[in-house]
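Ops channel
N.P.: pipeline sanity check, posting one input/output pair.
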């Protein structure tokens, strides 16, 4: 896997910042108001961009559908905000890492509680 250059990292962070503010203006009712951009990966040729989004509610697939339908508006706003040679084609992907982390934390707490209960039973 090729490492990103400094220029590509700068572009990724600038596009992520811009998309975070643009997604707040999307008026599609399917898009959750608590959607956040967790990562942006712009291809070195600036043709494509993977946008990983996290949704606070459980309806992530519905939000992704709404974002895909609003892609034209989002690309237009991105072109106005970020001065790039090409405005990349956006691909929205659901990032479940935050919910997975919360789920695993809950499971760990359950195991610790069960372990403490078992130790109390031995005494």
């Amino acid at each position: 896997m090729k490492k990103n250059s400094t220029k590509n990292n700068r572009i990724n962070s600038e596009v992520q910042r811009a998309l975070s503010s643009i997604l707040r203006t999307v008026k599609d009712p399917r898009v959750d108001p608590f959607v956040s951009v967790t990562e942006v990966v712009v291809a070195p040729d600036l043709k494509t961009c993977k946008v990983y989004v996290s949704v606070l509610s459980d309806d992530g697939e519905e939000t992704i559908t709404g974002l895909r339908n609003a892609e034209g508006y989002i690309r237009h706003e991105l072109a106005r905000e970020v001065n790039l040679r090409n405005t990349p084609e956006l691909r929205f992907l659901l990032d479940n890492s935050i919910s997975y982390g919360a789920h695993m934390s809950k499971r760990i707490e359950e195991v610790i509680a069960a372990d403490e209960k078992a130790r109390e039973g031995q005494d």
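N.P.: looks fine end to end. The chain has a mean pLDDT of 88.
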